[in-house]
Specification:
Chains A, B, C, D: Mn(2+) binds at residues 143, 145, 177, 201, 396. 4 copies of one chain form a homotetramer. Chain A contains 12 helices and 12 strands. Chain A is α/β, with parallel strands linked by helices. Chain A has an 8-stranded mixed β-sheet, with helices on both faces. In chain A, strands 8-9-7-10 form a 4-stranded antiparallel β-sheet. In chain A, a hairpin with an 8-residue loop joins strand 8 (267-277) and strand 9 (286-295).
């Protein structure tokens, strides 16, 4: 397939495949953002980009500067419109706003980032077989955010004729994977006047034709990057002269798993990545690790995060090393509003391709939680809904794909719900 | 045997057996001190007792107040002279001083405490067979300090006729076991004008007839008592509500053994005792432990002690508990002066019962080190010597005993050396 | 108060106070068992004692032989009837059976052991103020089993006139604390023909007048005693020659708390007691610890117990030490039968002193679970019920007490329910 | 500089620079071996290559097959003589033998591998400035083995005229870094009839003009690669389903540092590299680590290695994971023979460029130890000597270099010593 240099003449299915082929991981969505912004402005939406779409200080898990710069360069080389790349500077994601009438402000939140994983390249995988697998090694739309972006644009097109009594705000959020982009967008200010918010996810093992009117009970979650910094020394000659960062990391890991279970509900802790890299005869001067905690509630998650910080601090003291921690990402919990759920159910019921409407537990974590809570705290209402998509393999795996019919259903259900909410 | 109520009419062998039978552990040597003081005053020595024989603030590893009071009471009940018990108040040990002439001041240091261990009570053990095993359960002269006290008194008797051109200072030190009494006596002020100091140990696996003119290269050593204090909680209901003192102790112990070996020489660390005592369903609110570190030099010992403190501090931080540490005891290293060693060798050579004179490594730790260093820092000289004693079983074991001939040899060699040093 | 030497002339309130004053901890209930047995035989019940009331091989957490012997001796000295002490040999607890008619067999299970804890002795505590606090230091009826025993006897008295068409089996179980006595009694054979079983607990923070017709969802629980056995060595001279039991225990504890949380429900792990006892300069040759695990289901508990055994085994391998483990106690889960619950509710409703009937979660663990499961597996039905008792302080605390009215209510409710079940 | 395709017309200085420029790390020395072999055959030596120069089963720390193949390919592309590459198949290193007369067999051992590290490329570094820095990124002659190879060839040239009454055996050993190649060459059989062996090292912070006639007291050392293999699982959904390789590694590391110090002398342990690499929400299925132990004697090293294996085994048991270990490398201790040392001293004395002859401690580890021990066990004698080389920066650092005069001195001293030993 040809790489698109503008979206306006393409169908949503073509756009989804183009985005799939140019998968951009979190905080690297330059091409995605620029192409979306270009058409949204054409459609009459005011477009807020880069530092104007988020609170930049709240961004988490931002890749090293040189990687971000390389992703920006890559987008330009692939023909992304320079004007929009310039306007976003080095921050991805966008908020598109159009006032049609004096009615309420309705928000629709979709996320646009890919995962950092390699896509399957064999013929068992439709994107590979049909030529739209990711051209970026190690980046893949394995969670359907390509379809989310297409749905968001589809909703924008739906209202482009201007027949709507209210304001429509479309949130195209960067860096959902890892829970890195939700909080900064929630604190952009653009959520503060939203009366009703809809967030959407495709797939999640539901078939095409099923609409989940409410995903409930997500887990709160926090991801912490930790670096212990000590001093190297020759392990044979004078081990005492070192300050052993690996011993600190080891003490931390052993005790992190031992954080007390909580009487108030489920908690989790895991260390997924550890790295210390020296010759065998050198006392480790640096060790890094990536920790994740979870809790069945926001407070349980905070308990785990607080205890994690104590353990890390104590481990560093023990071995006389320094350390730095950075939040890689964070999500919280949310509860959908019954009124919005019911509106979604009415909208789904009115959509002919929908044959099953259910409510279910979410199971995972989502940083849409921050946007939903922001809206609710200001008196608004919100719901997180799902669109079945026949995904042939699990989310985050190399063979993940979706049936693009889900995009059309998503646009229809959300479009109808938006009109009803106004 | 009858319990003595005064030493003056008894032989040194009888006195040693009486002390053996009334073994008093560290900081509990009330009867021993009082009986020694009584005869020393009779012999014309000025006697400094209790808070006047040590710097009380430097005392380490002092037993709980009620145990000390019970030991004092026990001494009175056994007929120890009340006057001296009163004068020492609640601190044991003494310094005896007599100026005979204008010559130099010579010090002799002996220690007087027993060990906290049970003595063998069967007929394989001569003290049991001959009726002078310890009457105090759990206290035993298993390191020959009963003989040391007798030697110190013997030297005092030797010079009682007044024929000596100098000042004699006899240090009867309490609480050598664990290294608890040396530092406070070293800082009493009485060492500051000592020109030459002799310290002595019997046994140490040498036969009667052998004199060790110089024990070299003792290890520096420090013993630390640690208590972690957290909060209890029901381990089933809300384990999160506890602050787990046992997890802190566990983290500490694991990491203490992992303190880096030192390129500069031998180091040691050990935890000998750990205690946490709750029902199985209670998060431990308190855990105690006893740590020992050693180093081939004073600096290596300080390295280990410093790292130990860091590990404990970090472990407490990790598990959000409080902690207290107290030095249970401490020793340092010393080097004997060649001039004093040679004097001892001449004295030993002049003693007919001596048939072998050697120098050797000490192997263990000794808080005479503080007294020796104090003398040397002021320009004096010192040596730590040994008297073979045919001990049938190892030091600190239940069957330890000595051949009392060693007492006579000790008095002869030290007496002769003292005269030569003046 | 006077110590009773027979129960037959005493009221249930007097008997409860007598038992409270002579609190006997698990597997030491010689006096309690003997006095109960004596009256039960008088009342016409057949009495099965000692090894005839349990499967002796299944007994857990039995104290050392000398402690059991001392408790037996203590009972005799307090005037417990010798005949029954002789018949029970060295095993406590009893099963009393009487066939009144051909109707069904109804079982009533009460437990009779005290806790190993000191009772408050000040006037704020009614048992102390009124002279029936425990005369056994370190043993206290702090969980109401004294009242349970009285209720069991009260039910026996209730039916002594013979008017009942069925068989009554009364289980007076030893060693419920720690979950040590339930499994052996469940495997005695006496449960196998029980058609309906009632088990009862007083207090549990409910007021007098409340009956809990069903305590639900107890946690399964297992308690493991662990001893690591290594080799001692001098920590200064040759630490390498030791096999360090404390390092093994430390490695075990650190990793026990780190056993993975379970996706299937709540789990718990705790180490309540650790002991290693050496001088500071000795590599620990022995370390003991007491571990408890729990699970929201039997399988979750087995998961924790299995992982615990792996951790202990690995820790011993790591430090080249031997180890032994012994189950100190174990409980499982149970579900009450709706038919029995409803019978209890009818009986409670018919009792004038009862003003509130509820069902609630149990929260803790109970080894009645084994008896209940045994009955149910054979096709019988069962329920675990509660009788409010105005306990002024929490269970297992020094100021625990009950309002003895609860005994009367218990006898009434159970008696009525037993008649209805036949 | 031009890349050499044959050594025979080049000077030793040119050859050293050519080898420096084409640094080949351990078990990758294809070009080095081939070019040396070609000239050695020209000079009349019998050349044993590949599997004929070592016991292949004893090779340690061999890189992955594809890396070895790539190194072989690289050598061919750089013009290394195909015949010799073919003859060595996939194993590097060579033994060259020539019998000149009936006298004794004299061995000379040099090593030929580079380090896995990046060379400095700026003008402060002479090899960079003068154009002979390594063309292989991440490989560098930072320990002078390029000079060793040149010295070995220089000695071969020295005797090429045939005037020598004995047999000369030249050992060009691969993979000395990490101690990977010594043992397999020692067990090739070629050492078994060597009467006298000389091994040599340049640099080691000595100036040009200094000869170290005997390096003493190397440490024994062993390097172990460990991989723990468990099962992944979703850390949020069902952490219990995983078998956590990282927890096993953590338990191992914490306890490895805690291996008891040894009363018999210095020991060391270090973990230089740890790697576990998953997303934060995945229980680690694999963790790798590189461990090094050392001992002041062969036995102390074996003690550490044995304890290391126990700790790893126990850690795997604890967390129910599998593991594999592989020796990355190993060295032992040796003692030089006085007769050979004195011969070296005479030879050095006869060399005009030598102005200082010393003996000193080696400090590090060397797998020439295995060759030396092999010769000595068969009744031969050996010494490990040093040639000062003005190295401007420490061994193993990016700016390491040598003064090539050292090559000439090395050839002279060794040549003279070889003649004297025959």
């Amino acid at each position: 397939m040809d790489t698109l240099t503008a979206f306006s003449d393409a169908s949503l299915h073509e756009i989804r495949r183009d985005l799939h082929a140019h998968a951009e991981a979190g905080w690297k969505e330059f091409r995605t953002t620029a192409l979306l912004a270009a058409e949204l402005e054409e459609l009459g939406y005011g477009v807020h980009l880069g530092a104007d779409s988020v609170n930049p200080d709240e961004r988490m898990g931002v890749p090293p500067e040189n990687e971000v710069a390389a992703a920006r360069e890559r987008a330009l080389e692939a023909g992304a419109p320079t004007e929009y790349i310039d306007r976003m500077s080095d921050i991805t994601g966008l908020v598109a706003v159009r006032k049609f009438g004096d009615g309420p402000t309705i928000g629709v939140r979709t996320d646009i980032d890919a995962l950092e994983r390699q896509e399957a390249m064999d013929d068992d995988h439709r994107p590979a077989r049909e030529g739209f697998a990711s051209v970026h090694p190690g980046e893949m739309h394995a969670c359907g955010h390509d379809a989310h972006a297409a749905i968001g644009l589809g909703v924008a097109r739906e209202f482009a004729d201007g027949e709507f009594d209210g304001t429509l705000k479309l949130f195209f959020q960067a860096a959902e994977e890892g829970g890195r982009g939700g909080k900064p967008m929630a604190e952009s200010g653009y959520l503060d006047d939203v009366d009703h918010l809809l967030a959407v996810h495709v797939g999640l093992d539901e078939p095409v034709g099923t609409v989940v009117s409410s995903y409930d009970a997500p887990l709160a979650n926090a991801k912490l990057d930790v670096t212990f910094e000590g001093e190297p020394a020759h392990a044979g000659g004078e081990p005492n002269a070192g300050r052993n960062a690996l011993q600190a990391a080891t003490a931390a890991i052993g005790n992190l798993y031992g954080i007390a279970r909580h009487g108030g509900g489920q908690t989790r802790v895991n260390v997924g990545r550890v790295n210390a890299d020296n010759a065998q005869n050198v006392i480790c001067e640096e060790a890094t690790m990536r920790v994740e905690v979870r809790g069945g509630t926001h407070d349980l998650n905070e308990y785990m995060l607080g205890r994690t910080r104590e353990v890390i601090d104590g481990a560093a003291t023990m071995h006389d090393v320094d350390y730095e921690t950075g939040l890689y990402g964070k999500t919280t919990t949310f509860e959908n509003d019954e009124s919005v759920i019911e509106t979604v159910e009415v909208a789904a019921d009115a959509t002919s391709a929908v044959d099953r409407i259910i409510r279910k537990e979410f199971g995972g974590s989502e940083d849409a939680s921050y946007l939903i809570r922001r809206v609710q705290r200001r008196g608004g209402t919100a719901a997180y809904l799902g669109i079945g998509a026949n995904n042939p393999a699990g989310h985050h795996t190399a063979y993940f794909d979706i049936d693009e019919t889900a995009i059309d259903i998503g646009v229809d259900v959300i479009g109808t719900a938006v009109r009803q909410l106004s």
